[in-house]
Write a structure and sequence with these properties.
Elements lengths: L2 E9 L5 H9 L17 E6 L3 E7 L9 H16 L2 E7 L5 H14 L3 E6 L8 H11 L4 E3 L7 H14 L18 H16 L3 H4 L2 E9 L3 E10 L4 H6 L4 H18 L2 E10 L7 H6 L5 H5 L1
Parallel strand pairs: 1-3, 1-4, 4-5, 5-6, 8-9
Antiparallel strand pairs: 2-3, 7-8
The chain binds guanosine-5'-triphosphate and magnesium ion.
Length: 300
Amino acid sequence: MFKAGYVGVLGRPNAGKSSLINHLIGEKVSIVTAKPQTTRQRIQGIFTDDLGQIIFVDAPGFVRGDKGLNKFLHTEYTEVMEESDALLAVISLDEKDPKHIEKLLDSMKASGKPWCAVVTKTDLSFMHRTPLIRDMVTERGGQLFTYSVVKPEEQQEEFLVKGIQQLLPESPAPLYDPEIYTTQSLRELTSEVIREKCFEHFQQEVPYGLVVQIRKYQALPDIDRIYADIIVSRDGHRPMVVGHGGKTLKSVGTMARKDIERASGKKVFLDLHVKVKKNWMSSKPMMKEFGYVSTREANS
Ligand SMILES: Nc1nc2c(ncn2[C@@H]2O[C@H](COP(=O)(O)OP(=O)(O)OP(=O)(O)O)[C@@H](O)[C@H]2O)c(=O)[nH]1
Ligand SMILES: [Mg+2]
């Protein structure tokens, strides 16, 4: 019987959640960087085969927070957990603190939903940790899979996909057109890709206080003309993003343009500007303007 449903992908920041989803789907759905807290808003990536349709819901990594951006990340995490049909706990093999793993797995069990877990980054040399993690998972009634996006083994991918499909409800048909691999628009992906390149270029608090707004997206027959603002949270961040003689901004633009061209299949003209909106993360109206508002808050 065909299975279909939403799988919330949950874990600590930087565990490798977005990388795993991109890898299983075979497309860049969600941006990936070496910095924690890359994913901010849930992103849906869709995997369809003859046996089922998995709608992966990529969530931000678990963070605590009762205000600003952290509050939004926390709410987003909680909503994905509550609204999904099944859950996938993602644990990085380089996670040093077993308490974090236990807490994540306890929350899987407490959700009352079907769940399984995956250890990612198995190319890293901490393989002795896997049996310990497996015990933690089986103790709580779950099944553990292993995976590496750097050195993927075909069989592991097959096991993992089948394991996730089994968790889903039966469905007479796919929930989305099998040709679609994400519900994200090209405009949304563009904004995320620019943010990804910024995360790769800048250090410390600059990426955390950075957001991208697409001002205009003009899709012409042979070229997409895109005008976007990179918004930073402090005056001092602006020169860092622009760089000497605009060099850094140009490099961000070139890297982003290549990715957008790959996704759109067209030539892209990308116009980037840097703006300052002081401490936007502490302002509810500005957070809302950037789309950082939980579904429940938006609907209330
Ligand atoms: N060596 C190795 N690195 C990996 C693997 N998977 C992901 N990474 C790296 O881990 C880092 C974080 O990956 P992401 O996919 O952005 O992690 P995430 O869990 O989505 O992070 P947040 O969105 O910040 O919560 C990136 O530098 C990836 O390249 C893997 O299998 N092996
Ligand atoms: Mg992510």
